[in-house]
Amino acid sequence: MLFFRLRGLLVKHVEAILKELNAIDGEPEFLSHYCTSFEAFTTGTSYISELFRYLNRYWISYSHCETGQAPVPGVYPVTELSLHIWHDIAFSKLKKRLVKAIIHIFHAARRKRSECFEDGDCIASIVQTYFSLGLCRQDQMSLYREELEQPFLEDAARFYSAKAIALLSRVTISEYLREAELLCAQEQKRCESRLHRTTVIQVRQACCRVLVDEHADRICEDAENFLINNQKEDLHRMFSLFSELANENALISFKNILKKYIERSGMEVVQKFQQEETTKNPEGYIEALVQVRNKYFELIKDAFGFHPLMRTALDQACRAFANSHPRLPELLAKYTHYLMSRDKKQGCSRALLLPGSPRSVLPPLLDDLLEQKIENISVVFCLIDDKDIFKKYYSKFLAKRLIKGTSASDDMEILLIQKLRDICGCDFVSKLQKMMKDKMLSKELMDSFTAWLEEKDIDLRSADAANAPAIDLHHSVTYHCDVLTAGAWPISSAAAEHKIFLPPAMEAHTNLFTQFYTGRSTGRKLLWIHHLSFGMIQSHCFDKRYEFLLSFYQMLILVQFNTAKEMKRSDIVQLTNIPEQDCAHHLASLVKAVPNSPVESPKAAKAPTREVEEDRKMSLQAAIVRVLKTRRDIRQAQLMHEVAEMLVNQFVPSTTAIKQNVEILIQKEYLRRHEEDKTRFLYVA
């Protein structure tokens, strides 16, 4: 039969080719002749297939051994038949020699450290023969993977494993990393355009595994030396090689080394500043923390390209050493106050005056420097666990700056609040924003008050004789009044409830402002916080005229001496109704030539902390109820996790605190325990 005679002819032809190939010496010559013979054979059989087109279409299709209606063993279309014959007769006998020859050529190139070699095109052609023979299989790549790729990868791993051991015995880790990086790149280059792209990827992975992963512990031993000596190139090279490994164990070990080193460096800075020194010099302490963080931030950028794992190491380390100081939130708030306060002589932030030549710094440059300092504040703020404590101190200092008008720049104040909002959300800064808004609205309010006095001048003078000196007083002095929203400002209203006796003109002026404000803002009530007021008065009793910047209580006391040269303290208390203790304090400051610098009492220092504890209690309970209201039924572990996540931008709640507040809420009947499973909580509607 024609088909079987053709098959016999092809078998004899391939057997003859096999004899020729077996007789060839030399690996390059063998590979070249194999490629030529295979190409000639496949080209010839393609012509034969055209001649046997009719046979392919009918009888072979009908008798195909796998898909035909009447299958006959060994029957394939002519092209497929030729590939089966080549595989069974030639390839099966020569496959070991083929792999050996290819590996031999690669070995020679590796020894020469050459990326290009003369037989590269021949190897690419050999690889194509594997793909052609694979057409007979369901998975075309399977033959290539099993017969060439797998042995090649195993040999490459053995070669570079021996290479690694030899290198480690005679070079430093820095030199070894450079050599490993070069070897991986060279091997990849040799395989490109010759082997399949999947092999290129796998051979690089194999090289990294035996050169790097198997010796990761030894390599990591020098990681700290690289950090100490700031060897960014070596650190980058180590990180890049670790990043290519299939498992992340080496990279995680490297990350932990980096974290511990940064944390240790930060702790050295913290220990240099004893707690007593930090409270006296918060500026130096915060600047030192920022310098440490920025130093390693640059390292993360230059050596590791801001890789998330390395950023995590930096954040964890900085949080650890920053929060090791128990008063960090307070110190940062004090540093912020120092930074944002205006220097009396220069009219800019005190922190930005250059020693020796403050006037040489131009205002635009000062703004740029101040903006950079604000960025540093936001960096340290991100590291703080107890952000709510910082907010308490910061709000008090902000109120002090706004009320006394000592803020270096309103724009910079707003910028800092925006930074805090970006980190913690709108709720965190809502009161701070309201404080800034009150201050801006107060300026507009004073313009309106002056216009109102001018418009109503005649009517007001005729309505009450006391109004005339009050209106004259307003036009003769510079007067400003801030209307502050109760609840937004960290100010106690207790002092406002104590009535102070004002001079007649001042009392009438106060009444006029109250009349003006209540007329345009119905339903609102003004409480006068005199103890926070201040002013400047002139003396007319000395050879020279002096100006005194005084608190409001000090002004009231001095005004009493317009009618008498000597007065008893009891008389002053009676005339002004200033509390006796406050009166004694202000008199002492007026009598002493050099008053003592104010020292914060331990009680006053602890006050914000007590307030924070109460606020935390309420925040915890609100968060617990919010979670329960959403979940309705939740286990204790999940509840603690979700509550901690919800409060992460305020503080880090302890497990004990959460449990205590859960019990309080159970007593208040906001939630209850599950009857059968006591670790589950149910929301009570």
UniProtKB/TrEMBL annotation:
Pathway: Protein modification; protein ubiquitination
Keyword Ubl conjugation part of the UniProt annotation: yes
Any GO molecular function: ubiquitin protein ligase binding
Alphabetical keyword list: Isopeptide bond, Ubl conjugation, Ubl conjugation pathway
Domain Cullin family profile span(s) in chain numbering: 327-591
The keyword ATP-binding is annotated on this UniProt entry: no
Transmembrane segments: none
Recorded GO CC terms: cullin-RING ubiquitin ligase complex
Cited Pfam families: Cullin, Cullin_AB, Cullin_Nedd8
SMART domains noted in UniProt: CULLIN, Cullin_Nedd8
Gene Ontology annotations of biological process type: ubiquitin-dependent protein catabolic process
Family to which the UniProt record says this protein belongs: Belongs to the cullin family.
Stated name of the protein: Cullin-5
Species in which this protein is naturally found: Phytophthora nicotianae
